[in-house]
Specification:
The complex is a heterodimer.
Chain A: H1 5-13, E1 14-17, E2 23-26, E3 29-32, H2 38-47, E4 57-60, H3 77-93, E5 96-98, H4 108-114, E6 123-126, E7 140-143, H5 146-155, E8 157-160, E9 164-171, H6 180-191, E10 199-204, H7 206-209, H8 213-221, E11 230-233, H9 237-243, H10 252-265, E12 275-280, E13 287-289, E14 297-299, H11 315-325, E15 340-343, H12 351-361, E16 371-374, H13 379-387, H14 390-396, E17 400-401, E18 422-425, E19 441-444, H15 447-456, H16 462-465, H17 467-470
Parallel strand pairs in A: 3-4, 3-6, 4-5, 6-7, 9-10, 9-12, 10-11, 15-16, 15-18, 16-17, 18-19
Antiparallel strand pairs in A: 1-2, 2-8, 13-14
Chain B: E1 9-16, H1 24-27, H2 47-50, E2 72-74, H3 87-95, E3 99-102, H4 107-116, E4 119-122, H5 125-137, E5 142-146, E6 151-154, E7 157-160, H6 165-173, H7 179-183, H8 186-195, H9 199-202
Parallel strand pairs in B: 1-2, 2-3, 3-4
Antiparallel strand pairs in B: 1-5, 5-6, 6-7
Helix pairs in contact in B: 3-4
The chains are: A alpha/beta, B alpha/beta.
């Protein structure tokens, strides 16, 4: 009987079974950032422990960095304190640190893959739930709490229960204006925000096979929004081509050995799954959220659910969402006024996202009264975008071109909503207050849909706003050129 | 390093915060995570649910005088969904809560709670509502969570309470903080690391690999 990638990677990293029955699992790569690590380092110091595997630990700063200046000290003294703590902790423990001013700095889930640190068959952890992003490479990657960050720092292992594995089989071609973001919003909408609790999601099928690495990262990134702590794609030629030549990728004979090992870690054709679900890619429309969790999503041409559309058990959250968002059951979401447009985050801030947006916004102008930001995921993304002239295109269309960071995804830096502003956002969470204002409202969508909303001044169908460049038959793949 | 104390029971008064899918941003808004210690986070637990922007109280159950000192939070499905931030259970703990009863929990949140010795007891959806109604009607009544027996009792009423087997064992044995056990395996960890397919090109086989 064949094994899934999940099972193979789990088995290869298993150290022992602990007294309470949990598995002690070795962690091949530990990524660290400023928000969830200071207390872990403090605990280590209190216990007099060293970092066990500093050579497998890499740190950067992303959540709190401003996107308009690199000047130190940061204007926000609390943020400066976090930054200083990370600098001191990484220096003291001999951990590689990509800090402010370093050409490699960026959102942790963008730079891990970019530097070739993220590789197939690894276990990868970070004190951040969107660590599932790295699963795009066929890694077993998941978010952990700060006590677990401490455990990994001290021992390079974790105490864990294995997950069940659900194969999410997605087949068919995506329509014009439909992207990986729409696919994952559709999957979460279908399976529910708690449908994945206890599961790892294996994304497979012809749609996934045809996706670029960047699209697969978008897909895996939001696994956790469906309750699945882990999401992954099986590694293939696309994966290997993407990794080749990256700073931390193996070279020479090690490269050949690596490719052999990576091919072997993919799920066997006869692998056994705890569950299999099928998704028809052709049925997916440009998808946006209307509520206060990522499962409260709808096709752009559908109506906001009415009470009879919602199971009785979800009606409380449905009513709460209608009240909070100020939207009307049965009404379209298209036409909802937008105050802010945000293109960025670990979900959608990579070069292909920016290229695709730039391709469509040429000749258009952001509507008066809308603040529109483009925040690249890393300095590497920013440099490449600059080399291709993308910032000039964004600025000509009325978007602000900012410096890399998490920015308005969770608003721990100065980029925040004010009052009950509504933001069309390419990020991953539309929770109440997520974008920095306790009354702020978020509508999640693909970067191209965010651009369409910015230009229309309201939630809009990108297929109409960009009819010239996104009409039927136009190439719409979000992948690398 | 030290082992924790066994947690066979949690005994305390309850407070009901109804609603499904209560996410970690609601439990602790991100702007309060700009800190290098968890001290003081208790004041910000559920901050935006409890206070208006001008700082006035919204009359949240956590602020009701009758519920002051409650240590068991009762809530809805998928409690703690969203972020992996341990700031969420840390805020609840520092607010004074020692257990959460809900029909289901987000996985990372529940794991973070166990590591802190917070009991996440799974109760039926109807039972959660019943317990919530009971503690709301009788804020002074004391709940007893029996970890070993898998029951929640309030006066002469009681309800089944489930925990994952390993969590139950960890709480009962005092091994809910696994660090010491993990650290004892250093030699076995090294053997596993050296045998990994990627050991050769990542330095896990003992060879120096240039970094940074």
């Amino acid at each position: 009987m064949g094994r899934s990638l999940y099972r193979k990677v789990w088995d290869a990293h298993t150290v022992t079974t602990l007294a309470d029955g949990r598995t002690q699992l070795f962690i091949g790569l530990h990524l660290v950032h400023e928000v969830t690590s200071p207390q872990a380092f403090a605990a280590l110091d209190e216990l007099g422990l060293a970092v066990a595997y500093p050579q497998r630990t890499f740190a950067t700063v992303d959540h709190i960095v401003p996107t308009d200046t690199l000047a130190r000290p940061l204007a926000d003294s609390l943020a400066e304190g976090m930054l200083a703590a990370l600098e001191a902790n990484t220096a003291r423990h001999g951990i590689a640190y990509f800090g402010v001013g370093d050409a490699r700095q960026g959102i942790v889930h963008v730079i891990g893959p970019e530097l070739g640190l993220t590789q197939p068959g690894m276990t990868i952890c970070c004190g951040d739930s969107h660590t599932s992003t790295h699963g795009a490479f066929g890694a077993l990657a998941f978010g952990i709490g700060t006590s677990q960050v401490r455990d990994v720092l001290a021992t390079q292992t974790l105490a864990l229960e294995p997950l069940k594995v659900r194969r999410v089989q997605i087949d068919g071609a995506l329509g014009a204006g439909v992207y990986a973001k729409d696919v994952i919003l559709h999957v979460i909408r279908t399976l529910g925000v708690k449908g994945g609790v206890g599961f790892a999601y294996e994304f497979a099928g012809s749609t996934v096979d045809a996706m670029s690495m960047e699209e697969r990262m978008t897909l895996c990134n939001m696994s956790i929004e469906g309750g699945a702590r882990v999401g992954y794609c099986n590694p293939d030629a696309t994966t290997f081509a993407w990794l080749r030549g990256r700073a931390h990728a193996p070279t020479g004979t090690a490269w050949d050995a690596a490719v052999g090992a990576w091919e072997a870690v993919a799920s066997d054709a006869d692998a056994v799954y705890d569950d299999v679900v099928h998704v028809d890619a052709a049925a997916i429309r440009p998808t946006v959220t209307w509520g206060i969790n990522p499962g409260q999503a709808m096709g752009i041409d559908e109506a906001i659910p009415t009470a009879s559309d919602v199971p009785a058990s979800e009606r409380g959250t449905w009513q709460d969402a209608l009240d909070y968002m100020g939207v009307t059951a049965g009404a379209p979401i298209a036409g909802t006024r937008v105050d802010v447009a945000f293109i960025g985050s670990c979900t959608n801030s990579r070069l292909s996202d920016l290229r695709e947006v730039a391709r469509h916004v040429q000749g258009h102008k952001v509507r008066d009264g809308v603040t529109a930001l483009v925040v690249p995921g890393s300095w590497d993304v920013a440099r490449q975008a600059e080399a291709e002239g993308l910032p000039a295109i964004f600025e000509a269309a009325g978007f602000q071109w900012r410096q890399p960071g998490c920015s308005m995804c969770l608003a721990m830096n100065p980029d925040k909503l004010v009052g009950d502003q509504l933001c069309a956002s390419s990020s991953n969470r539309n929770f109440k207050g997520r974008q920095g204002s306790a009354r702020g409202r978020t509508v999640l969508m693909s970067p191209v849909m965010v651009a369409a909303a910015a230009i229309a001044g309201e939630v809009a169908d990108a297929r109409s706003v960009f009819a010239g460049s996104l009409g039927d038959g136009a190439s719409t793949r979000g992948g690398e050129a | 390093m030290k082992l924790g104390q066994p947690i066979p029971t949690v005994v305390g008064r309850g407070v009901f915060v109804p609603g499904d899918d209560i996410d970690t941003d609601r439990i602790i808004p991100a702007r309060f995570m700009k800190c290098v210690t968890f001290d003081g986070l208790g004041a910000y637990a559920f901050h935006d649910e409890r206070f208006r922007e001008d700082g006035s109280s919204k009359g949240h159950p956590l602020d009701a005088a009758a519920h002051a000192g409650a240590s068991v939070l009762v809530s809805g499905r998928n409690f703690g969904c969203g972020s992996s931030r341990e700031h969420a259970p840390q805020a609840l703990y520092r607010f004074g809560l020692r257990a959460v009863l809900a029909p289901s929990f987000a996985e990372i949140f529940a794991g973070n709670c166990t590591t802190l010795g917070i009991v996440c007891g799974v109760v039926g959806a109807d039972d959660a509502d019943a317990i919530g109604a009971a503690v709301t009607a009788e804020p002074g009544a004391v709940l007893t969570l029996d970890v070993a027996g898998g029951r929640v009792a309030l006066g002469d009423r009681n309800w089944p309470m489930a925990l994952p087997a390993s969590t139950r064992e960890a709480l009962l044995s005092g091994r809910w903080d696994p660090l010491q056990e993990l650290a004892e395996q250093a030699a076995a960890v090294s053997r596993v690391a050296r045998a990994l397919p990627y050991a050769a090109w990542t330095g896990l086989d003992g060879a120096e690999v240039s970094r940074g």
